[in-house]
Amino acid sequence: MNLSYKTQRIIIITSFLALPLVLLLLFTYYPSVMLVYYSFTDWDGFGFDVNFVGLKNYREIFSNPEYFQILRNNLYYFIGGLVQTALALFFAVILNSKLKGRNVFRVILFLPYILHQVAIAIMFQTVYHTSYGSLNKLLEVLGLEAWKQQWLGNPAINDWALAFVSLWMYMGYNMVIFIGALQSISDDLYEAARIDGANAWQSFWHITMPSIKNVVELMLILTLSGALQAFTVPYIMTLGANDTSTFLMKTLDVAFKFNQFGLASALAVVLLLMVAVVVLIQRLILREGGTRV
After folding, report:
1. For a 10 Å CB count at each end of the chain, is N or C smaller?
2. Phi and psi for 41 in degrees, rounded to 5?
3. Membrane-crossing residues (predicted)?
4. Number of folded domains in the chain?
């Protein structure tokens, strides 16, 4: 059977796209639809005994302040993420210059991102340990015994300590992204700026920042969504003790400790909506700010 070129092209393209589309529907969209469905039920995670309860789960979430009070712990990760983004950009600018041994410094700063998150969490448990932790030992050596703390046991600082672990873990990754963006900027722009008498700060503010604005926006969006979904570090290091639980940890507790999968599904939907709304607001603010600039 002779097929036209157009028909053959359609068949080939459809064949190549069929498997990815099936996998996407099966492992992304179908679970998402079922998540929303279960959020309107009282399913306990076992068997097929599912009863539709309407908005009961959502009413419970929005009438119980405990679920949203816990979001304040996510705020520490967001602040740490902003500091992380600023440090990543700072080191990217420095290591994008003609600095001797810059590749060595790039590897050193990127190395924490390569390590497994669980290994990093266990490592920092040792660093923060009250009795034999390296951080308190260092303070002793420096004569700063008064600064010694129960870094994971003091509710006033434990969230900051956990947020620092996330900062240390992901800063190198953000730095590499920024370096890639910086290398796409033509050197002719900086040369023209130097000829016109611009100093380093003026070149950075008027050339570098506008050129990488989209990358900065992406990093801020990832920082915000990552802060709302913080889980691995606080779960491994404290299991949510001493008021370090996050919204995602609370969702998993509701599902797997109390077997309230319907309520947990509703919490997951609320988290998804919060991330979407906040990211949308952030994009609008950054876009308007970029237009004003």
Report:
1. N
2. -125, 175
3. 12-30, 75-95, 107-128, 160-182, 218-241, 261-286
4. 2
Q: Are 136 and 125 in contact, with CB atoms under 8 Å apart?
A: no
Distances, alpha carbon 75 to alpha carbons 80, 133, 218, 227, 293, in Å: 9, 26, 19, 7, 28
Task: Judge if 14 and 152 occupy the same domain.
Answer: no
Residues 6+ apart with CB under 8 A from 242: 152, 153, 154, 155, 158
Q: What is the pLDDT of residues 190-220, one digit of tens each?
A: 889 898 888 888 888 889 998 998 898 888 8
Q: Two tokens at 38? A: 């279960």
At 60, give phi and psi (nearest 5°): -65, -40
Alpha-carbon 265 to chain mean position = 21
Do 125 and 269 lie in one domain? The reply is: yes
CA dihedral over 158, 162, 165, 166, signed as positive or negative: negative
* One domain for residues 10 and 92: no
Structure tokens at 13: 């393209």
- Helix, strand, coil % (nearest 5) of the chain? 75, 0, 25
User: Within 13 Å of residue 137, how many CA atoms lie on the same side as its CB?
Assistant: 8
Task: Assess whether 8 and 57 both reside in one domain.
Answer: no
Q: Identify the residue whose tokens are 């949510």.
A: 240
Q: How far is CA 89 from the centre of its chain?
A: 16
